[in-house]
Specification:
The protein is built from 26 helices and 20 strands. The protein is an alpha/beta fold.
Length: 673
Amino acid sequence: MSARVSLPPRVLPPAALAQIVDTIKTLAIDAVQAANSGHPGMPMGAAVMGSVLWGQFLVHDPQAPLWPDRDRFVLSAGHGSMLLYALLHLSGYDLPLAELQRFRQWGSKTPGHPEHGHTVGVEVTTGPLGTGFAAGVGMALAERFLAATYNRPGLEIVDHCTYAIVSDGDLMEGVAAEAASLAGHLGLGKLIYLYDDNHISIDGPTDLSFSEDVAARFAAYGWQVERVDGHDAAAVAGALARARAASDRPSLICCRTVIAHGSPGKAGSSASHGAPLGEAEVAATKRALGWPEDAKFLVPEAVRAVFAEQQLGQRERRLAWEAHFAAYRQAHPELAAQFLAHLEGLVPAEILAKIPSFPPGGAMATRKAGGKVLAALVAAHPTLVGGSADLAGSNGVEMAVASQSRAQPGGRAIHFGVREHGMAAVCNGLALHGGVRVFDATFLVFSDFMRGALRLSALMQLPVVHVFTHDSFWVGEDGPTHQPIEQLMSLRLIPGLHVVRPADARETAGAWRHAMQRGPGDGPTAILLTRQDLPVMPESRESIEVGAYVLWQPKGVAVVDLDGVLVATGSEVATALEAARTLEKAHGRRVRVVSMPCWEAFLAQPASYRDEVLPPALTRRLSVEAGTTFGWSRFAAHQHGLDHYGASAPGKLLAEKFGFTPAAVVARWLELP
């Protein structure tokens, strides 16, 4: 049994706990009523769960909200955000009552759904149902991996739990099912979820669409499952204690609750799910609770006193950990320094220096080059973890390290199985936890399955690396179902996501370097790689941080004497280069070739650099990319792409049929006005 689990839970007198519950309920209904917007029912129904967990079990310190060994809490049912805001305020986080009074208003720290990085104490951005559930799995996985990597006998510096409150809606979403299955398979024993089983969704009773036996499903996944009355504080506390003792599997505590519990007119009704109770019902609810009807945002002094005393105990636990870590650092100075460095989330220069160089000449698929880069990074970076959605060999991300499993909690290669959405959402949780750098991988066409989690990683500015291979119609015989057309451009639509499509092995090394240099607050990176071999060009660069550069132009030709520009990415760069040379030699046309592996990085450069690469005077420009042309007009007046689905045939034949040969690009250029 871990030291954390052996700590007895704090015990609150029933009267004090009941007053905390009523305080949370009234804060929630007052905030939603003031905003005339929000979800009062869930915080009211889950108030007992939240009070017991935060009042008696959760180990954290509001004065040190980023303390590494704190317990993590995820409100996956993010629509009930006032539950979390009330708990943060009462617990002593820097979230004044005035912020609760400005719920859902411009500039407040209490947005409609919890946002990581915006409100102190919010561990993960939630709202899209199921994604918080999956992120919690990632947090628990990070905790177990770091514990196995850094803990030493008698000096356990990583020992905490991940808790969440999840809803019916979370458990209906497929992403939660994917993550739950993985968590059960891996036996994540410090993962404890409270299920707010209130039988209500927006449209009405959940039995309109949801009649499965949730407890049986999770038991089949390998979870410990228990059913309790969610309004019985002692029952909830007992279930939490038993869940903490289940070290070999995650736990789901099914708490049967009533939405809007305490509201005489709207308890148990979907009318309380996404709308204020109304002034009359707010007053009726306060009367039923024995609360002053005219008091708004009331926090009794007795409740403040309980949490003030709790803060002292939380601070003592954190200081005890710091003393424990000081002893660890004295005994294991190198490990301690490494642990602290990787908590920062930045990749040291000495690790980046291990990225291999690729000499010009020959040909290599960029997925193979990416695999060589990853192998070097894995050998140098002790907490680089990740894996593929059952495509590790095809993606080139097989790792010569132990696989993550029940038997090997320190394994760094994660077999996510065919669970793309769950994979990406779990990786968000790994990144949020801190201490690890994380990547995932699949075919580019399957990025569609991951889009919700990709958007959230960008919204939270997490430095997750997404490796997408088989990046064009060159997939060939698998046909249009597996040939990405619109996916590349659709990824570019996600603000904050850097999409890198390298032209060869040299640019692939640069793509990984760029991705690993992006730390917390910078955002995720998608690296798009080929199945087919590409020539390793002497003209390409191993540094692509500027996003685009002049790859080639005829020698001795000034900008004013150029006839135009070919702009290309990925596998089309070599095609464009050969076309430009043919245009010069056979047709006397002097055309610059620009490789643009990353739009986002290029657009972040000063205007002077962008104009140097794409001179405004050179208006005859043709983009060449094996995907939809939508969006290219911002860089080139003319586009050569693929605005239709592919076909099942060998890749070389498709290149001829679809016009992605040097001869076809030459012909297209000669047609330009």
